[in-house]
Amino acid sequence: ACLDEIRERDEALGAFLSIDEAEALAAARETDRKRAAGEPLGSLAGVPIAIKDNINITGRKTTCASKILEAFVSPYDASVIAKLREADAILIGKTNMDEFAMGSSTEFSGLQKTRNPVDPERVPGGSSGGSTAAVGADLVPLALGSSTGGSIRQPAAFCGVTGLKPTYGRVSRFGLVAYGSSLDQIGPIARDVDGVARLFQVIAGHCERDSTSARVATADVLADLETPPAGLKVGLPVEFSSGDVQPEIKAAMAKLVARLEEAGAEIVEVSLPHTEYAIPAYYLLATAEASSNLARFDGVRYTHRTADAANLRDMYVRSRSEGFGIEVKRRILLGTYCLSSGYYEGYYLNAQRVRTKIIEDYRAAFAKVDVLLAPTTPTTAFPFGDRTDDPMSMYLSDIFTVTANLAGIPAMSLPYGADGDGLPIGLQLMGNHFQEAHLLRTARLVE
Ligand code: GLN
């Protein structure tokens, strides 16, 4: 049924870069066989799942929506994919994204356009826009995205779906193409909190192949999902409500606050004073790490190599110039610049100091409250072309999401009503490190 829906409706939507029909059907038949034979079934048996195209699956393309990797076929499974196979999930296809996950609208995909499932003239958000559009359009019930600065929550908000960025180190990054390694996390996208919790339960856990994977026991997030947290204290960061937030998003916030109070929660104002430095710090650190991570795409290994080059150096230059898109080039240049001698102390080191200040802000806030509530985005989904010529305005789409990545804390976006044009509004809940179970219970209480 999912394959039929995708065939019928994805040409207009553009969520998928590739579909794996034969393998998906084989996996579905295998589930049927196991069920008939009375063999034990995994927790996601028979459930089709879409995978962002920066996560490796054996024998399938991993393009990162980049021309430089257009023909790259992965020789191995990411750890999350191995876990999904164990859970008997059906890997149905790979989804579009901003090239190498750099962007907030999926418009920087080097391969294809993805539309917002609610309004085809608007962006789905990004960078996991293909995954959130696929779930938002009901083509699949579950999807995986990745977040470096907001790429799960922001497109989830724009597409009216639920998404979670787990605690840094909670989900293995082995097999995820690296963008900003100290920020990247894979996370679940679904129609509701229950779906997100079920998928999180499968992909979370320590992994020997990821040196930053945390050795923390994974709590059973499903066990108490329906139990409302007792004595809940919710913090409202003042810095997230000041400034330009669309009035309908402010109204949705007020509604959710009232709902929480009704459920017995205590609402407290808190301050995260270094929030104003988050965007500059994030874009220095993320680009610095990206410039180093993307050095491996050199025309020698992987796919794209220029047709004619005068010498080795020329081959590197031409292959990269031809293969990378404009936003990726901008970031490599910015990252290389801020890591270069003479600038490193002023830019990179200062950004690291700001990051520490932001971590301390959150530590102080979580000494007072259990969860923090904020909008996911300052506006609802914007029209195509609105921000592509002005990088700063695009970067500001992430203003409410990047701090959770800098601090490494878990954060999720919940759909909460719509604006006057019917465009979905997303609100954000943030929790302390490794408190996903608590975060999901709180989200379940108010969804
Ligand atoms: N929009 C942010 C960026 O371009 C976040 C992307 C992401 O989380 N992958 O860096």
Automatic annotation (TrEMBL):
Residues 1-440 form the Amidase domain. Pfam families: Amidase (PF01425). It comes from the Bacteria. Coiled coil: none annotated. Residues 108-131 are annotated as: Disordered. Gene3D superfamilies: Amidase signature (AS) domain (3.90.1300.10). Keywords: ATP-binding, Ligase, Nucleotide-binding, Protein biosynthesis. GO terms for molecular function: ATP binding; glutaminyl-tRNA synthase (glutamine-hydrolyzing) activity. GO terms for cellular component: glutamyl-tRNA(Gln) amidotransferase complex. GO terms for biological process: translation. It is an enzyme of class 6 (ligase). Its EC number is 6.3.5.7. The active site is at residues 52, 127, 151. It catalyses: L-glutamyl-tRNA(Gln) + L-glutamine + ATP + H2O = L-glutaminyl-tRNA(Gln) + L-glutamate + ADP + phosphate + H(+). Allows the formation of correctly charged Gln-tRNA(Gln) through the transamidation of misacylated Glu-tRNA(Gln) in organisms which lack glutaminyl-tRNA synthetase. The reaction takes place in the presence of glutamine and ATP through an activated gamma-phospho-Glu-tRNA(Gln). Belongs to the amidase family. GatA subfamily. Heterotrimer of A, B and C subunits. This is Glutamyl-tRNA(Gln) amidotransferase subunit A. It comes from Sulfidibacter corallicola. The lineage of its organism: Bacteria, Pseudomonadati, Acidobacteriota, Holophagae, Acanthopleuribacterales.
